[in-house]
Amino acid sequence: MLNPHRSALSDLPKMSAASQVERAVLEDEFNWLLREEVHAVLKQLQDVLKEASRRFCTPTPGLESQLKQENFILGSSTMDQVKGVLTLQGEALAQADINLKVAKSSQVLHFQFRDDKQWKLQQIQDARNHVIQALQLLSSHNESYQFQTGAEVNKLMDAVMLQLTRARNRLTTPASMTLPELAASGLMKMFSPPMPGDVMVNFYINLSKLCLTVYQLHVLPPNTTKNFKPTGSSVLHNPGAMFELNNNRFEVSHVHKVECVVPWLNDTLVFFTISLQLCQQLKDKISVFSSFWNYRPF
Questions:
Q1: Residue 222: pLDDT band by 50, 70, 90 thresholds?
Q2: Which of 6, 31, 166, 176 has the highest Cβ tally under 10 A?
Q3: How open is the CA angle 73-78-79, to the nearest 5 degrees?
């Protein structure tokens, strides 16, 4: 009598052999990925991030004055209450020329930076530093370096992605400030003639835009303790916001926000997106192989 299990048993070595062949092919593909494709992606990433770095116009120590100056006309959405021209030189505002039409009067106030002053835009400086750190991570693994495991590649990609995410976040997320912090900042001492006590300004980057916010204030009478509620930290404060400074209480009466598009900031955000996608695609390829060999530390 024929053994009903014989044919099935005789097939087992074949299945095992096929499985071994498949595993050998996959191992060859994975080794090729570690040896060739990873370095190709690293090269792509370096090229893209070098372009991003160039957009930041990194100054050479001692030669900052040779950076080209770019003038931007501020566009307003508040009936032309504020007009002005901002001069950007790398990561610094080299000049700000602002006209403010005072609410409830036809008076126009004119302010500009003192000739001996520039205002560093910390967001641009920080974003540039994160790009430089990402480039340093990539260059620490030159073409002769041999990656041993997928986990090693993933670790590098995670470190690069962290720097790129931080760089992008610095441009997309302006810092929140309280109104007393803004009043006490060095920005208020930048102007000639000096700003009057009832006007405050703030500059910040939001995505690819350079923004200027002008706050007009009025002093609250000393007896307004009942309804006085200090406002917390924010990027943009609304009319009615209150704060206390030097034993005086103020309320924001008018807010004017004007902005201008900085094309090279838009370029850098595009480069960040491309770079993050390249990193994620490489991680995805690694993960495809990791599901085949549970015993190997990918």
A1: confident
A2: 166
A3: 85
Phi first, then psi, for residue 8 (nearest 5°) are: -65, -40
Separation CA 29–CA 22 (nearest Å) = 11
CB atoms within 10 A of CB 31: 13
Separation of alpha carbons 192 and 90, rounded Å: 23
Q: Is 237 exposed, middle or buried (0-12, 13-18, 19+ CB in 10 A)?
A: buried
Residue 249 CA to chain centroid, in angstroms?
Answer: 35
C-alpha span between 150 and 70 (Å, rounded): 45
Q: How far apart are alpha carbons 118 and 276 in whole angstroms?
A: 33
* End-to-end Cα, the chain, rounded Å: 50
What pTM was estimated for this model as a whole? Answer: 0.82
Residue whose entry in the numeric block shows the structure tokens 């005086």: 248
- Measured in whole angstroms, the distance separating CA 143 from the mean position of its chain's CA atoms is 29
Separation between Cα atoms, residue 57 and residue 131, nearest integer Å: 12
And the tokens for 91? 């990561």
